[in-house]
Amino acid sequence: MTNQDVVLTIWLVGAALIALGFLFVVVQARRPAANAAAQNHVSHVLRKWVFFALLAGFAIGSWATLHQFPIPSQHGPSGAPQTVEAVGRMWSWQLTPDKVTAAREVEFRVSSDDVNHGFAIYAPNGRIVTQTQAMPGYTNRFVHTFDEPGTYTVQCLEYCGVGHAPMTTTFEVVAARGQ
Ligand SMILES: [Cu+2]
Predict the structure, then answer these.
(1) Domain spanning 82-174: which superfamily?
(2) What distance in angstroms lies between residue 51's CA and the mean position of ligand 1's atoms?
(3) CA 168 to ligand 1 center in whole angstroms
(4) What's the whole-model pTM score?
């Protein structure tokens, strides 16, 4: 399951819960006023439990989906055996080096010489692999392991002027020796 699928599932479940909430309010509003006090008590208790259930659901869902993201600490060495310096500027990318080995961790250090850019890596099949912001005066780091060798494409995902759309470059992921 890709991150996109996880987010879609969370969104669908969340939307369904909100729709159920609306339905609950509509049904409640149609009820006659008889036994209003008793009903109010029931609906008050129900509302309280629905609120805490939603709160617990979102808290557990957030933890379960976010804690495992491969976000390395921005301080100290990551321990990745390969490092790529990626610098964006209007309107090109500079990757040093532009060749890495598959099946071994790569630490990307991403920054910008001018304005904010979006640093996104696309696999040879056109699917987005990972991305981060390229910001002036700051280095964003992330670690990724490429499973498949091939020619990967970098595309800017943050609109940065007339040269934004063709702001791309490529780099090679080569098979590790013995593979
Ligand atoms: Cu751009």
Answers:
(1) Cupredoxins -  blue copper proteins (2.60.40.420)
(2) 41
(3) 9
(4) 0.61
